Amino acid sequence: MSELWRYFLLFLGAALVYNILLIRFIALCPFFGISNRMETSIGMSISVIFVMVMATSVSWLAWNYALEPLGVGEFLYIPSFILVIASLVQFVEMVIKKASPPLYKAMGIYLPLITTNCAVLAAATESVKPGFFTKLNIAYHYGFLESVIYTMGVAVGFSAVLIVFAAMRERIELAPVPKFFRGVPIAFMAAALFSLAFMGFAGMFKL
């Protein structure tokens, strides 16, 4: 198998087969909180892609060249990775606040909460720390490029699902939904059906 094809399968597997939202059910809080409007979903998606990829890149370097060589990785990897993520989120928050105040206001509390978005921490940990999830990709001890490609797949999968689901919810708002199903109940039902559709990708290949 060529290296390019292997990288493509790694990206595709992270985005679809092991989708972080609909298959692994990680980061459902921002998924339901942000997906009610397309504009906020797109803004969140771009922010998460940037933060997730950069966080994994910096975390990989920190793990392999500082935490692991010093023998403190097992104790300090979580606070170290969160510190990296928090710094990147602060940077993104300042850029959005300056470039698009309406988007910054629309995203509200969910923008700084990227710091505690478990999808970002999960992607960084899976790509960096060997043995964390033995049944997932981390068992393969990814190198730097593989970690970045995997994380890009996770981020793109997160973003694609978020944007498509936002479009679904905007259409649902115009549909004749019974009153007691409107809002969160119909959103959960739509997400469940969406998840069932993604389960069709299960077993296509293993990471």
Main beta-sheet strand count, sense and barrel state: none
Order of helices and strands: HHHHHHHH
- Total of DSSP H or I helical runs spanning 4+ residues: 8
Q: Give me the count of strands.
A: 0
- Beta-strand portion reads under 5%
What does this structure look like?
By secondary structure, this protein is mostly helical. It has one domain. The protein is built from eight helices and no strands. Helix 1 (3-17) runs parallel beside helix 7, helix 3 (38-70) packs antiparallel against helix 7 and helix 4 (73-99) crosses helix 5 (101-107). Residues 130-140 have low confidence and may be disordered.
Which helices and strands appear, and what pairs or packs with what?
Layout: H1 3-17, H2 28-34, H3 38-70, H4 73-99, H5 101-107, H6 118-128, H7 144-174, H8 184-198
Helix pairs in contact: 1-7, 3-4, 3-6, 3-7, 4-5, 4-6, 6-7, 7-8
Task: Describe this protein with a few key phrases.
207 residues; mainly alpha; 71% helix
Outline of this structure?
The protein is an all-alpha fold. It has eight helices and no strands. The chain has one domain (29-200).
